[in-house]
Amino acid sequence: MSERMNSAWSPSSREIQRRGERARISRRQAAIAAVSTTVVLGTLLIILVTSPGWAVVKKTFFDINYGREVFPTVIAGLWINLQLTFIGGAAIGVIALGLALLRTTKSPALTPFRFLATAYVDIFRGAPLILIILLVGFGVPALQLKGISSNVIFLGTVAVVLTYSAYVAEVIRSGILSIHPSQRAAARSLGLTSGQTMRYVVLPQAIRRVVPPLLNDFVSLLKDTGLVSILGVTDAVRAAQINASRTFNYTPYVVAAILFLLITIPMTRYTDRAIRQRTNAQSAEGAI
Amino acid sequence: MANVLELSKIRKSFGAELVLNDLSLSVPEHTATVLIGASGSGKSTLLRCINLLESIDDGQIFLDGEEISDPLINVDEVRRKLGMVFQSFNLFPHKTVLENITLAPIKVQGKNKDEATAAALALLKRFDLADKADQYPDRLSGGQQQRVAIIRSLALNPRLLLLDEITSALDPVLVNEVLSIVRDLKSDGMTMVLATHEMGFATQVADEVCFLESGNILERGSAEDVLHAPKNPKTQEFLKRVHQAGRL
């Protein structure tokens, strides 16, 4: 029936006129955007290339041939960053979930652990990551404990995991607290225990809600793995540094930066999309 | 007839505010007890206390003769025997209709999945919701969501069903499809305690109507007596206001 109605419909003359007006408006807006973009970017480019030091900067930061030469060592370093991100990310997920659950539990037997979890989060969320890396990287080997590796990659990962677990635990905890108490009441009134309520009702909804901020933290994690270079790990940053200090040409830093951006920009775009979808879903949920 | 539920001198306050004051009530098997009264008169709190979602400050609650207001009682076991339906449905949004219904039978009663699913589908079919089994709650109308919420508590074969203003959040057009389920359950012999503002419906199902005011039952009796020939001036006043609002 709707097909018949559609085929019988043809736009009125007023509608055709309106479409013409809308097309004119959008053409004018596109033209304004193009002019404004050309002017702003063009001005910035002119300021850059006419600056007194541009010739030197071009040679020391944007030397394409040297960039090509160091590319293999920098990308080999980036592989370390990626491994660190994924292995560390998995460990962070598990530890953070544990911390978040401990901090939201009311079980009396777990009281001491709840205090410890709170203290842990306070410490590692509040101290700069670079200090934690230095303390773990140089402090733990100094203890000369048997069975604990003094491998710098391992210690660097441990430091990053310690810090990020605290960040992520807080994100998950905020997700748990954001679930309306009526969901808990409904689950408990069906006879589910508090543990079952957490596992089957609260946590699945909470995790879904915090996926966008978790993706944000994942992008930050990838970038921050570059900090383990201070322990001497030959990651992308360290590889670039070695090459740069050998020749006093800083192109390797630019190469490393571009490689990081190639990974992080698609990830942030994806995160933005996830956040948008989440917002749309929430407004569709209405009062609940 | 044995009493399924027995409330003796219940007292409950939130801070300085006394919500339930020395309230006693008996609910015999296969009967429906309807609680009426203005918002804030304690109806919801009373239902939440029966379900042990709130703890009482004094008095005793007995379910089939067992004192469930004992702090040593296993609250999860008590709640398995009590079904509760909320004003705001409270379906689990991340689970389908079928998963909402089978969660407790599987996890709480330890039924296997096929058995629980078959029972849930039979209930959905009985209440004309079979085609919604695999939908998520946000795809359903308010009336359908509330019917699913009722089925979710029925799936545990409760001894007693507590219904807390289950039609208050609904479009007037959708109220009847929800109330007709309750009428069906009543004729099946389900024991119920319900809080409602639907006086016409109360007349149809109530074996006893209790008028709550300031945390106590001011007047109780058959629907005929309390709703149509109230003796207490406060009940008369309340019903007059309901009548003016067009609900009687």
Write structural notes for this entry:
The complex is a heterodimer of chains A (288) and B (248). Chain A has 288 residues and is an all-alpha fold. Chain A has eleven helices and no strands. Chain A folds into two domains: 41 residues; 221 residues, Orthogonal Bundle (MetI-like fold). The model of chain A has no long low-confidence stretch (mean pLDDT 89). By secondary structure, chain B is α/β, with parallel strands linked by helices. Helix content of chain B is 38%, strand content 25%. In chain B, the strands form two sheets. Chain B has a six-stranded mixed β-sheet with strand order 6-7-8-3-9-10, sandwiched between helices. Chain B has a four-stranded antiparallel β-sheet with strand order 2-1-4-5, covered by helices on one side. The longest helix of chain B is centred in the last third of the chain and has 17 residues. The mean pLDDT of chain B is 90. Classes of the chains: A mainly alpha (288), B alpha/beta (248). At the A-B interface, helix 8 and helix 9 of A face helix 2, strand 6, helix 3 and helix 5 of B.
Lay out the secondary structure.
The complex is a heterodimer of chains A (288) and B (248).
Chain A (H helix, E strand, L loop, with lengths): L1 H7 L4 H38 L3 H8 L2 H41 L6 H16 L2 H14 L9 H27 L2 H9 L4 H31 L11 H12 L3 H35 L3
Chain B lengths: L2 E12 L2 E12 L3 E5 L6 H8 L7 E6 L2 E2 L7 H7 E4 L11 H11 L5 H14 L15 H13 L5 E5 L7 H17 L3 E4 L3 H7 L2 E6 L2 E6 L1 H6 L4 H12 L4
Parallel strand pairs in B: 3-8, 3-9, 6-7, 7-8
Antiparallel strand pairs in B: 1-2, 1-4, 4-5, 9-10
Helix pairs in contact in B: 3-4, 3-5, 5-6
Alpha-beta content class of chain B = alpha/beta
Kindly report how far apart the N and C termini of chain B lie.
Answer: 31 Å
**What is the CATH topology assignment of the largest domain in chain A?**
MetI-like fold
Helix content of chain A: over 70%
CATH class of the largest domain in chain A: Mainly Alpha
Shape of chain A: flat
Specify Rg of chain A, calculated over alpha carbons: 27 Å
Write down the overall mean pLDDT of chain A: 89
Share of residues in strands of chain B = 25-35%
